[in-house]
Amino acid sequence: MLEEIKYYQDDNLRQSNELIKLSGKSEYTKNQLKYLENNKHKFMSQLENLNNIISEGNIKGSPFNITISKIDDKSSVEQKISDEKQITENKFQKIIIPKRINDPEKIDHLTRKIFKK
């Protein structure tokens, strides 16, 4: 009977030691998991910050080379587009409006020069 009691005491002691080791490992694993979750959260917030900065700076582009802007910047972008369009139209008007040439030889010379290319 004494041997049996001694056996159970030793077994109980061994299991207690294993339990302590496993709970230490468990606590360490929990701490590592919390650390990794915190890092993950920090990286996600940094990525969101970066995306906000990029979208505010109109750096982000599409394959068609058109910049994407925020909705509240729309009026200024539309103004820029209309100004650019107006400038472009003015350039075309300067090119399209021909001068009146009264000399037939000069007209003949210019016509040959144009169709020579």
Characterization of this structure:
This protein has 117 residues and is an all-alpha fold. It starts with a helix and ends with a helix. The protein is 78% helix and 0% strand. The protein has 3 helices and no strands. The chain has helices at 2-56, 74-96, 104-116. The protein has 2 domains: 1-67; 69-117.
Could you outline the blueprint of secondary structure elements for this entry?
Blueprint: H1 2-56, H2 74-96, H3 104-116
Number of domains: 2
> How many helices?
3
Summarize the main sheet.
Answer: none
Average pLDDT, rounded to a whole number, is 76
Which radius of gyration do the C-alpha atoms yield? Answer: 40 Å
Order of helices and strands: HHH
Total DSSP E strands: 0
**Terminal Cα separation, in Å?**
118 Å
* Residues in β-strands, percent: under 5%
Q: Pairing-aware structural class of the strands and helices?
A: mainly alpha
- The helical percent reads over 70%
Uncertain segments are none
Shape: rod-shaped
Which terms summarize this structure?
117 residues; mainly alpha; rod-shaped
